[in-house]
């Protein structure tokens, strides 16, 4: 890898131990993946924020970076944490976990990271432009900005994204390069319903089919919420970090896909994907908002619940969104709070729900993939309206 004189000075420790640690990590990744050098970034989004996922080892790493004077040099946002910062007792979180979690958030803040704690920062706090190089962790968010917005990021890990945020640069390889952004397979989507849930099913089926490929869709024109669900499902069911949709995404028109393999995904394939995720009959917890609910989704749920009562007191309901969206939707929040807490900064996947529940219902294919492995849950997977029939 080629480093400029200033970059080499950072690597040699001339800018402090925090920046040196960051440069060591970024250059190590660059060498592994054959990068020719570093590229400036305009923003970062950081995972590794929940105490559940990083533990005391991750906390110590953050303490060392902060003690070494590390500061982010580009706008940087934070992924969901393991609890709502003010309502963690409603989530059955113990004080030990809460203390550690607040310490983690504080350390990120000390390094200059915005404490937004959302997997959907592109809905307001962190919106790249088409062509921007960024360093984003969080599989669904990076897929969304790569694809629907046309920014450029690899599938970063939490430490790598934080290191890039400190440097304001990342290694120039992978999806930062034109040649790696070309489609590898055409997905012929057919008989699609215009619902977020159907897009989640589509993403599940495609992720299962293509793994880490770059799909090019025909037959769909997703909006923001649909693209959010599609990105999340493909990243969880496979490892899709970039996709294109004909006549929709900003880079799709650049590519001739006439010679690529076509994979049809219709109702049968989506039904098979749904059946794969369903492993339970009745939940103890219904958790909606993975990725975090948008303002439109909040209002849609409020309309769905209006005039109804929650009749099953033995089933908890959580709604998960960002603090910013929760603040934007006071009327929807009031309606939803009659059935369960509208939680900010967290979600069911990164919260320690395995100590409280064994069966969780979700409308998200992303959560449907992660709940069994990260939370030891059996899953009830279905549309929001069907899941919330317990209120009737």
3D architecture notes:
The strands form four sheets. Strands 12-11-10-13-14 form a five-stranded parallel beta sheet, with helices on both faces. Strands 8-7-6-9 form a four-stranded parallel beta sheet. Strands 3-2-4 form a three-stranded parallel beta sheet. The chain folds into three domains: 5-177, Aconitase, domain 3; 182-275, no CATH class; 278-391, Aconitase, domain 3. The mean pLDDT is 96. The chain is α/β, with parallel strands linked by helices and 392 residues long. It contains 14 helices and 14 strands. The chain has helices at residues 5-11, 17-32, 51-67, 95-110, 139-149, 158-167, 196-210, 224-237, 267-277, 295-305, 323-328, 330-336, 365-375, 384-387; strands spanning 38-40, 44-46, 76-78, 135-136, 169-171, 185-189, 215-218, 244-245, 262-265, 285-293, 316-321, 342-344, 359-362, 378-381. The chain is globular.
Keyword list:
40% helix, 3 domains, single chain, Aconitase, domain 3, four-stranded parallel sheet, 392 residues, alpha/beta
Strand order in the largest sheet: 12-11-10-13-14
What percentage of the residues does DSSP assign to strands (E)? 5-15%
Task: Pick out the low-confidence regions.
Answer: none
By CATH, the architecture of the largest domain is named 2-Layer Sandwich
Fraction of residues in H or I helices: 25-40%
Under CATH at level 1, the class of the largest domain stands as Alpha Beta
Instruction: Provide a count of the helices.
Output: 14
Number of domains: 3
